[in-house]
Amino acid sequence: MTHRLDGAEAAVGALLGAGVTRGTPVAVAAGGAGSGIAAGGRCWAVTAPPAEVVRRVGSALSPRWVWWSARRTARPLVAAGVTVPACWDVAAVHRLLHGGSSDAPAQVWAVARGLDPQRVPRSGQLDLLRDTDAEEGDAGDPVRPDGYLRPDWADEPLRTPEQAAAWAALALELQGEQAEALASATDPRRPPAQPPLAVLTAWSESAAELLALELAATGLPVDVAAAAALIAGHAGPRPVDEAAALASRQARDAVVRDLLPDGEQVDLRNPAQVRAMLARLGFDVPDTRSWRLEPFRGAHPALDALLTWRRSERIATTYGYGWLDRHVGPDGRLRGEWRGCDGAAGRMTASAGLHNLPADLRSAVVAEPGHVFVRADLGQVEPRVLAAVSGDEGLARATAGADLYSPVAEQLRCDRPSAKVAVLAAMYGQTSGTAGEALRGLDRAYPSAMAYLRSAEERGRAGKDVRTYGGRRVPMWGVGAAVEPAVAAARGRFARNAVVQGAAAELFKMWAATVRAGLTGLTGARGAGGAGQRAIVLCLHDELLLHVPEVSAEDTATLLHDALDRTAARWAAGSGVRFVADVSVLPRWSDAK
DNA sequence: GATTTCACGTA
DNA sequence: CGTACGTGAAATCC
How many CB atoms are located within 10 Å of the residue A441 CB? Predict the structure, then answer.
């Protein structure tokens, strides 16, 4: 029988009695108006909600919070401004270990228990042929006799603290198994004094999921008037009704159509019609993508007009008034949903256009009064990552300076642009172009790095999974090696890229997690990014954007550099690889160089 | 109505 | 024939 605790203070006492100290894994889940907690193989139902329990227990004991996923459990914590310095996200670590993008508990559990994830039972499933034996047993047990989770537990909010306690106990069980699996995956090259990289990665991937929730809550400061003015420059003034919107659209189209013979007939938004029109003008193109039309820009006035129209059309549709209205709150913050990792190599993703904001619009991203942005981006991160993950000593030596490509060019006896193209071509699996000679030079100069890439490519071609340096499994699609050559080649390029891009994403997230921890000083309320607080407001693959009070700009810049040094010392320990960040303080995002 | 294709923005 | 993502409009498929 689960013990019931009355209030968060009682939870502190119970956990203290169970021997919980700083860093001990303690699982938490929500159930009804209360919560469930689990530690050291025991679990308790608590009458207080998770936000209160995490706040009180956190300040008293500083455990490592364990949850099925931040998305399900930590949202109310973030909303309440509760600081969580360290956590373990079972779903995030599941994705690290097994690949994919699922965070559904039923899937995570099935894979962990060696059950077929395809056969996970679903809520409300009415299957006359179902195996009723498997579903009998104690409805108070989240696990069915056949080993799968009960769908009503897995898919729906739990109704009582007792259920939450059982749920937390399962999360703790999985966390223990995951930690063990990760700890056994050690790299002999790493110094034995530190936790294995895969464990460090599990921590930072978990932190990234929490950061994703915080980014969604905090939002990116936007000067709405400036944004509207930029949009007006492309799409015209904000239309008052449907008729005005149509008129504005037609006026934009007319600029291009007037330059065309029979322009009235052409729908500019229909690629087939545009292609036919281009053919009539004498341009035979396989498609109408702008990079393909760009060379002909000067050949006919309509082409220049069309390409300009496309830019405006992009702003008008994707980043127009509707976008502002949907995603920018009355507080002038642009908010989207964030994920800590995508389904492929593990980069962060964001919706609401946060990751693909046109450069023009960046001038509307403006710090609030009394605040500035501190922007930091990793320099030449992918070749430096390649040097670290492949253990290539020659390439590691090339990371000593601020520029990696100059020493590579010297080594290859070619010019810097050629060296850069060759290195990028090697990492991305480029097959066209004229990087051939330089690529052969790379093979001679950096054999370990090139072998590492080739090995990933071969695995990909054969349909085998690859693993990133931090231990993320990257599955291949298709079945086995018997696929069309084009598929094998695509998998090879993908795998070659994934081991670099994925490892870079892991380094980036560890850096971001370290910066995040440094911002809070591991204590005190975060306050959901409110005024006066320092907060990460954007993560962009190799770039961090922080919004901070003006007076703390210099301290924050120092923090970003220090955090990178500390991250690199752990992540790339023993490799001799240097990582560098460019840090600047800006009133608006577009002021970056 | 849901899915696919084309296009294009960012890294 | 470099990869990844999210998005919107139109075409296409039920």
Answer: 20
